[in-house]
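2024-03-11 09:14:02 DEBUG pipeline.ingest accepted 1 chain
2024-03-11 09:14:02 DEBUG pipeline.ingest length=94
2024-03-11 09:14:03 DEBUG pipeline.predict start
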Amino acid sequence: MKIDLKIYLPMLTEVVGRDELEVELDGRTAGDLLDHLTRTYGKGARDALLDERGQLDLEVQLLRNRKDWITRDSLNTELEEGDHVTIMVLMAGG
């Protein structure tokens, strides 16, 4: 299944070498996408995406099709062919 990925996470962009890519995903979930990225891009991707316990870092946010937030508690969210997933750092302000 092909997923369009947009990255607004500088550390991950540096490891991947670009900020947009099409990912050929063997799995079906957001967690499978993260597993794919960490397997493909190694330690740099793990450091960018995961905390010291191996969970999605709380500062990293996933957005599916520009409207559905995927949290680390919902990484079992199923993705579909052609989905757009954005990975970004949490922004706060006020």
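2024-03-11 09:14:41 DEBUG pipeline.report The CA atoms of residues 27 and 60 lie 21 Å apart.
2024-03-11 09:14:41 DEBUG pipeline.predict end
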